[in-house]
UniProtKB/TrEMBL annotation:
UniProt-listed Pfam families: COG6_C, COG6_N
Location of region: Disordered: 305-345
Listed GO biological process terms: intra-Golgi vesicle-mediated transport; protein transport
Stored PANTHER family: COMPONENT OF OLIGOMERIC GOLGI COMPLEX 6, CONSERVED OLIGOMERIC GOLGI COMPLEX SUBUNIT 6
Species in which this protein is naturally found: Micromonas commoda (strain RCC299 / NOUM17 / CCMP2709)
Keyword Manganese: no
Annotated keywords: Golgi apparatus, Membrane, Protein transport, Transport
Top-level lineage group: Eukaryota
Function of the molecule: Required for normal Golgi function.
Protein name: Conserved oligomeric Golgi complex subunit 6
């Protein structure tokens, strides 16, 4: 049986066994123990506690020795701190005494600092004032001493206007005197700058006068815009522009007329003076090109497309400032506003420039018209001038002197055309033309037709639509005398066929052929009307290709239809009268137009059944016995008119026959056994005629 340990020893053994030898504390203790524990002997182990206690005692002694030295060092430091505190107290006492002595100096220093801050603030305000209300040396130099107008000049001028506007704001504060003085200075700068600018513009305008189609420099445009704030100078410069361009354009036009371009290309316009239409066209083309170029120049020079917004704003501010400066007396300058606006009107300026070429153009065109051009040439000139009148009016304005000159020339060309037509008509009246033996249109009709076609072709070829009424008037002015001459010729035919015993003059040399006899065609009953039909048909046919001549063509066709109806009516009436049907038809129409009792028509002796039947049968017999039941109307040369004429003739005869026939068959008229008294019906007559 194992021996049990005492409880106390057992606890110690257990504690030793539970103690870990690898913990940091244990390792540190063992390491410290190894420093003074020598050999591991029983005696050493028995004296281990005392050895450890002696070791602790030695360590405490060493600590006491070291702390004593530290105490001595701290005592030295404490003594030094006491010395420092004593020095600080002495310094504080000295500072208190110094503060008492320098209090006034500090107050003055603070006051000086405040004054310095105010001065700095005023300095900044002054610098800002100089920026807003003063010009720099460079700007003053640009306004006064530069030989040429450059971009710097306009920048400086804009700066002056800006300062002027700032002064206007300054007048609203309590610094009115300074504002007025500054405005006077700026006004002086502006006045000198504008005068210098006006002189420069005049020089530039003289330079522009030496060029044909100059491009306006931007600086010149800006200069003219800037001068708008000085109406007198601006108007003077505009007048200078008008004068120089007026003279330059006149010289260029005369040179183009007489010398042509450089080296003779293009050739002088007057080379074509013998061809009035080309001569006028070349001059008008040159004027059109020149007017367009001058309009662009004036528009660029006067900045009509829109001025600089800043300059307008500055100009308005400047004017407002002047109003305040002058106490609201700006109305003194109001009298010249309308005059200035009129002088600066681009159309008015352009009109003054182009006015110089009006007289040379008018003189030369009148010379061409005085050379007695043909009616066609005069009409072409009138159309050409009418087109350029509208074209130039769109460029320079309807009221421009150049447009008025072109209109005068157009009216002169129209009068020349009318004079030529009048002389032609007078010639036709003075020398009546004998109708040809075949009743064909005489030569003057062909000439008239040719002239009318040329006039209509000229109008259709014209570059502008023109006035259709004027075209109709021109066609009528040419056709009417020819129609009148044809009517007189037709009257001569009738005069030649009139028997001498009836008071007529008989055949005359004007109505006889070379053999002294009346041509066979003249003997036709419808010779007069046939001659007129042939002439009118020829004229109407000439107008067929031109839609614009529809009114004149319709008028001629209407007369043709009327004449054809007259011929057919006369011929049908002749055979109806010879057969007695005409008289019967008239009586029947009289009864039908009145309210009569039943059978009244049959009781009329003139409308007895035998009389009526005899007239109808006689008509059929005459038609059937005639070698030519329907006249051929060969004297009418137009086949279509001839066919229409024959158809109208047949229709009138059948219409009269049918009217009488149906009246006889009508029971209300009281005829008995009417069909037995009439041998032929309307169909039989129609077969004979057709």
């Amino acid at each position: 049986m194992a021996t049990q340990l005492a409880p106390g020893l057992a606890r110690k053994v257990k504690k030793v066994l539970e103690t870990r030898a690898d913990t940091p504390e244990t390792i540190a203790c063992l390491k410290g123990l190894s420093e003074f524990y020598g050999e591991n002997t029983p005696a050493a182990r028995r004296g281990l506690r005392s050895s450890i206690e002696r070791r602790g005692l030695d360590i405490n002694r060493e600590f006491l020795e070291a702390s004593g030295q530290a105490q001595e060092a701290l005592a030295v430091v404490d003594a030094q701190l006491e010395g420092l505190l004593s020095g600080c107290r002495r310094i504080a006492n000295v500072l208190d005494k110094s503060r008492e002595r320098t209090g006034n100096l500090l107050d003055e220093t603070a006051r000086f600092n405040n004054n310095l801050a105010k001065i700095e603030e005023r300095k900044k305000m002054l610098e800002t004032f100089l920026v807003d209300y003063q010009l720099t040396d460079e700007e003053i130099s640009a306004l006064r001493t530069d030989d040429q107008i450059t971009e710097k000049f306009f920048s400086a001028l804009a700066r002056v206007q800006e300062i002027h506007g700032n002064c206007r704001q300054l007048l609203r504060t309590h610094h009115q005197r300074a504002g007025l003085e500054l405005m006077d200075v700026m006004a002086s700068y502006q006045e000198n700058a504008h005068e210098r600018l006006a002189r420069w513009v005049q020089g530039e305008c003289k330079t522009l006068a030496e060029e044909d189609g100059p491009d306006v420099p931007d600086l010149l445009t800006r200069a003219m815009t800037a001068l708008k704030s000085r109406p007198v100078l601006h108007r003077y410069c505009i007048e200078e522009v008008s004068r120089t361009r007026h003279n330059a354009l006149f010289r260029r036009f005369i040179s183009a007329l007489t010398k042509g371009g450089p080296g003779g290309v293009p050739r002088p316009i007057e080379v074509h003076a013998t061809d009035p239409r080309r001569y006028a066209g070349d001059m008008l083309g040159w004027l059109h090109q020149a007017a367009a170029g001058e309009k662009e120049l004036v528009a660029a020079l006067l900045a009509t497309e829109g001025d600089d917004g800043d300059e307008e704003k500055n100009g308005d501010e400047e004017k407002d400032g002047d109003k305040e400066k002058n106490g609201g007396e700006e109305h003194k300058e109001g009298a010249g506003v309308d005059e200035e606006e009129e002088a600066a009107d681009p159309e008015a300026v352009l009109d003054r420039i182009l006015e110089g070429v009006c007289r040379p153009f008018k003189v030369r065109l009148e010379q061409a018209l005085n050379a007695s051009p043909t009616a066609l040439v005069a009409y072409q000139l009138a159309n050409l001038l009418d087109f350029y009148r509208e074209t130039l009016g769109a460029i320079v304005g309807k009221d421009a002197s150049l447009v008025a000159t072109v209109e005068e020339c157009r009216a002169s060309a129209a009068r020349t055309f009318e004079d030529q037509i009048s002389r032609r008509a007078a010639k036709l009246r003075e020398k009546p033309t004998r109708p040809p033996d075949t009743l064909a249109p005489p030569p003057f009709v062909a000439e008239t037709v040719s002239l009318v076609r040329e006039l209509l072709q000229a109008r259709s070829d014209a570059v502008s639509g023109g006035d259709l009424d004027e075209t109709y008037d021109a066609v009528g002015a040419v056709l009417d005398p020819a129609v009148e001459a044809c009517e007189r010729g037709a009257g001569a035919i009738a005069e030649a066929l009139r028997p001498e015993e009836s008071g007529g003059a008989g055949p005359t040399p004007a109505t006889t052929n070379a053999a002294g006899t009346v041509p066979p065609a003249y003997t036709a009953r419808w010779a007069k009307e046939a001659y007129l039909l042939n002439c009118l048909n020829a004229m109407a046919a000439a107008l067929g290709d031109f839609p614009g001549a529809s009114a004149a063509r319709d008028s001629l066709n209407s007369r043709v239809a009327s004449l054809a109806d007259t011929i057919a009516d006369d011929e049908a009436g002749r055979i109806l009268r010879s057969s007695g049907v005409a008289e019967v038809r008239e009586l029947i129409a009289l009864y039908q137009g009145q309210r009569t009792e039943r059978g009244a028509m049959s009781r009329d002796p003139a409308l007895e059944l035998g009389v009526v039947g005899s007239a109808l049968d006689k008509l059929v017999d005459e038609v059937s016995a005639s070698p030519e039941p329907v006249p051929a109307f060969d004297e009418v040369l137009n086949p279509r008119t001839r066919v229409d004429l024959r158809g109208t003739y047949v229709g009138k005869i059948i219409e009269a026959y049918t009217l009488v026939y149906m009246a006889v068959l009508d029971p209300n008229n009281g005829y008995r056994d009417a069909k037995s008294a009439i041998r032929h019906g309307p169909d039989a007559l129609g077969v004979l005629l057709n």
